[in-house]
From TrEMBL:
This is non-specific serine/threonine protein kinase. Residues 553-851 form the Protein kinase domain. Pfam families: LRR_1, PK_Tyr_Ser-Thr. The keyword Transferase applies. Its main location: membrane. It comes from Camellia sinensis var. sinensis. GO terms for cellular component: membrane. InterPro entries: Kinase-like_dom_sf (IPR011009), Leu-rich_rpt (IPR001611), LRR_dom_sf (IPR032675), Prot_kinase_dom (IPR000719), Protein_kinase_ATP_BS (IPR017441), Ser-Thr/Tyr_kinase_cat_dom (IPR001245), Ser/Thr_kinase_AS (IPR008271). PROSITE patterns: LRR, PROTEIN_KINASE_ATP, PROTEIN_KINASE_DOM, PROTEIN_KINASE_ST. GO terms for molecular function: ATP binding; protein serine/threonine kinase activity. It is a single-pass type I membrane protein. Gene3D superfamilies: Phosphorylase Kinase, domain 1, Ribonuclease Inhibitor, Transferase(Phosphotransferase) domain 1. Signal peptide: none annotated. ATP binds at K581.
Length: 864
């Protein structure tokens, strides 16, 4: 027991935000929160979503009786796993979902021979999978997805020895080489094999067909070559995704029509050719042939399938969609009972007069969902509270619920209602204080990513025990996936509304904390203070100074209001106009985050990036002082709200300025910066209509330019979010490029990215006809520029569409700048001239660029 106490005290010393009742010398007797004991022995630590920060001390080896360690959703836990973790020989559950751990997985992990669940998903682990992992003979669940792991797949010893494992989840890493034929054998009991989004090459081994228990196979987005292996006899296989590989000249595999449990078949961009067998569409559970939600899909787009499409009268009653875009189908025959959606756009059958047939036109999806409140009296809730489906105001635990299987659009709520009931049953089985759950989904053609809210029972807040228990269930519910959704993955939001005595104690503890732990202590009075941020040129203002410059923060000087707080116009003694963003009391931005943002902004100096003038951290105030930008946001000008008329030349100039600002952040800032929220509302226009990139609230620095992708909680704005970032949580500069591509389309159309359920990127992609003038985009080009000379528009569209391609195909911002400069020369404007038009015509407006829109923190992988 003494070793366990010493180990826990060591963790307490190195971690911040540990539970307040971690006091005394007996964790079991004193009921330390998150610590569970059996016969006075510490056997479980469950501290999910506690806001813990720090490293995992090697002293943890003192917890020799530990069976469960769950530290999920604590992104502040960083550093490598200690080698001494291999001494926890009784450990059966090691769950570290969505933390910040990095470095290699220690070889000593192979000593944990009682381990049943190893879930390290969504961290920053790097290096190879240690071959010793093959020693884990009791392993049921292996989840290493969404990391930076590399090297080849280890076998003999390695994964092939895990004959009792049901799950290999290894997607979204950097594994390379061939998939070893030894990886699979007839003794295995695997149901999930997920190696998508890696760099695997070579053929798919034929030994995969020996795993008769297999239900889900994801090998998409690799560099695999053909032919497809024979999977005849895999009678449990229901989800297959082999899309986006380099398989060439492969006929439609005959074994597909023998898979009686098949629900989804995804083979986009695989080089598939030949005619689809008539019997394929008679598979009893097949629902769709495209990206859609949880029911039965087959996606065979962008291949070379040809001949006559035959869907006979025996086709599956479940079949909802057949999507065969961009193939060589010359005709089709369907049975009388066929009433599914059929998409044959881009096939010869849609040429000529038949081009107006329904199957030659893609119908817009408007699939959305939001949990309806029960029959109860609607109530008005306090700030930050939300009304539950039972009409009770509370502070819910929130996050994203992502379906791991290929997703399908669902046009009824049955599947969501079933999922809500499943969640409630899961929480009730653990006797957790949950009143209700709410799900919502925005209309798009994307992977199914649901917003989840879990409401407390009988109180306004969850306590730490409740949150930890809910997080444990959500991180473990994937072990028992709900059909037909497949495995589910949860990404938690921080929870800062702990109830009762805990909130009071947290406040008191903060008030009496040692000033040496406050990195902002005596900033202005002691510039050599150890904790002070390393600022370059940003001035420290006193509260009284900013109060004076804004006329006591008068309403007359308030020029914007957002979730962060209010923005005021101020005038410095030098007559310089500034914009002062003042955080409201109770803002969730912590001191260290504020410090980090200051350090980032203070070193950014470019004519196309908004400048930071200074800051104030005094009297419990957090304020940022920026240069004042006179002409508002690009969004306001495109919408007509500002009164500024933007002709084609001005739009090109704005695009170039914004691109140069973004190029500076990516290539010249030290270290480089990923903005993470590029959108028209964050491009400001000065008095000469020069574009300036603004709002760095979500920006991330890249510590190592050679390894420039980082795992982060998904944040950004709906419509501009990079689909690959949403899927993998791997943030790179190419995510900014995607947002900039959407911005370019917005400059052409003056439409918001998502309007009335339609995604403008998809609208443009479907309407482009390169054989016609202006690519036949007349219907969606902004009427304010249509009819004027639009020289270079086609090349501008080409560049925008390249920016929203797959990540590897996107240009860098440096390349974007060069191409826009070339386009401007075509249009007759010298891109290097700083001449300013004096004919800018606009009206005064009371609106201001610093007004913040609500950020959509939830990922949306938008249809392409």
């Amino acid at each position: 027991m003494s070793d366990a106490v010493a180990a826990l005290n060591a963790l307490k010393e190195i971690w911040k935000n540990t539970p307040l009742n971690w006091v005394g010398s007996d964790p079991c007797g004193n009921g330390w929160e998150g610590i569970h004991c059996t016969n006075s022995r510490v056997t479980s630590i469950t501290l999910a979503s506690m806001g813990l920060t720090g490293q995992l001390s090697g002293d943890i080896q003192g917890l020799s009786e530990l069976q469960t360690l769950d530290l999920s959703y604590n992104s502040g836990l960083i550093g490598s796993l200690p080698q001494s973790i291999g001494n926890l020989t009784k450990l059966s559950n090691l769950i570290l979902v969505s933390c910040g751990f990095s470095g290699p997985i220690p070889e000593t992990i192979g000593s944990l021979q009682q381990l049943s669940i190893l879930s390290l998903t969504s961290n920053n682990f790097s290096g190879p999978i240690p071959p010793s992992i093959g020693n884990l003979s009791n392993l049921y669940w292996l989840d290493l997805s969404v990391n930076k792991l590399s090297g080849t797949i280890p076998v003999s010893p390695g994964l092939d020895m895990l004959v009792n494992a049901k799950h290999f989840h290894c997607g979204s890493n950097q594994f390379s080489g061939e998939i070893p034929s030894q990886l699979f054998n007839a003794n295995m009991s695997l149901i999930h094999v997920l190696f998508d989004h890696n760099k695997l090459s070579g053929k798919i081994p034929s030994t995969l067909g020996l795993v008769k228990t297999l239900e889900i196979l994801f090998l998409s987005n690799n560099q695999l070559t053909g032919p497809f292996p024979d999977l005849t006899g895999l009678n449990s296989l229901n989800h297959v995704d082999l899309s986006n590989n380099t398989i060439d000249k492969t006929d439609f595999p005959p074994w597909v029509e023998t898979l009686r449990s098949l629900e989804t078949l995804m083979m986009e961009d695989t080089g598939l050719q030949g005619q689809i067998p008539d019997a394929f569409f008679s598979l009893p559970l097949l629902i769709k042939v495209k990206f859609v939600l949880a029911c039965h899909v087959s996606v065979l787009r962008n291949n070379k399938l040809n001949g006559t499409l035959v869907v006979n009268s025996d086709s599956s009653d479940h079949l909802q969609l057949i999507d065969l875009q961009n193939n060589y189908i010359t005709d089709y025959m369907v049975g009388k009972r066929f009433n599914s959606e059929l998409i044959l756009v881009g096939n010869p059958v849609c040429e000529g007069a038949q081009g107006t047939e329904p199957y030659c036109i893609i119908q817009q999806s408007n699939s959305s969902y939001s949990t309806e409140p029960k029959t109860c009296m609607q109530v008005t809730c306090k700030s930050h509270q939300i009304s539950s489906p039972n009409c009770r105001c509370a502070y819910p635990y929130t996050g994203l619920l992502i379906l791991g299987a290929p997703s399908f659009n669902v046009r009824n709520s049955n599947i969501y209602t079933s999922l809500e009931n499943y969640l409630m049953r899961s929480f009730q089985s653990y006797q957790l204080p949950v009143d209700s759950v709410s799900l919502s989904k925005n209309p798009d053609d994307s992977l199914i990513i649901l917003s989840l809210e879990v409401f407390p029972y009988g109180v306004e807040h969850f306590d730490r025990t409740g949150i930890s228990g809910i997080a444990f269930v959500l991180s473990n519910m994937t072990f028992h996936p709900m059909k037909p959704l497949g495995p589910l993955f949860f990404i938690a939001d921080p929870y800062s509304y702990f109830a009762g005595i805990y909130a009071l104690h947290q406040k008191r503890r903060a008030e009496i904390s040692d000033m040496q732990n406050n990195p902002f202590a005596s900033w202005c009075r002691n510039e050599s203070n150890f904790g002070a941020p390393q600022l370059k040129g940003a001035r420290c203002f006193s509260f009284e100074e900013l109060k004076k410059y804004t006329n006591t923060f008068s309403d007359a000087n308030c020029i914007g209001v957002g979730g962060y707080g209010k923005v005021y116009r101020g005038t410095l003694p030098t007559e310089q106009l500034v914009a002062i963003k003042r955080a409201k009391q109770g803002s969730t931005q912590g001191d260290l985050e504020f410090k980090s943002e200051l350090e980032l902004l203070s070193r950014v100096h470019h004519k196309n990036v908004v400048s930071l003038v200074g800051f104030c951290f005094e009297q419990d105030e957090q304020m940022l002082v920026y240069e004042y930008i006179a002409n508002g946001t690009l969004k306001e000008s495109l919408s007509g709200k500002s009164g500024i008329r933007l002709d084609w030349m001005r739009r090109l100039r704005i695009a170039l300025g914004a691109a140069r600002g973004l190029q500076y952040l990516h290539e010249l800032a030290n270290p480089p910066i990923i903005h993470r929220d590029i959108k028209s509302n964050n491009i400001l226009l000065d008095e000469y209509l020069n574009a300036k990139v603004s709002d760095f609230g979500l920006a991330k620095s890249i510590g190592d330019p050679e390894n420039c992708h980082i795992t982060t909680q998904i944040k950004g704005t709906m419509g501009y979010l990079d689909p690959e970032y949403c899927m993998t949580q791997q943030l790179t500069e190419k995510s900014d490029v995607y947002g900039f591509g959407v911005l370019m389309i917005e400059l052409i159309t003056a439409k918001q990215p998502i309007e009335k359920g339609k995604y403008i990127v998809r609208e443009v992609r479907l309407k482009i006809d390169k054989s016609k003038d202006l690519y036949d985009l007349h219907e969606i080009i902004d009427p304010n520029i249509l009819g004027t000379a639009l020289k270079g528009l086609e090349k501008f569209v080409d560049l925008a569409m390249r920016c929203v391609e797959e990540g590897a195909a996107r240009p860098t911002m440096g390349e974007v700048v060069k191409e826009i400069e070339n386009i401007m020369q075509i249009a007759g404007w010298n891109p290097n001239a700083d001449s300013v038009s004096t004919s800018v015509c606009y009206e005064e407006t009371s609106n201001h660029p610093y007004i913040e829109e609500s950020l959509i923190m939830y990922s949306r992988t938008l249809a392409r």
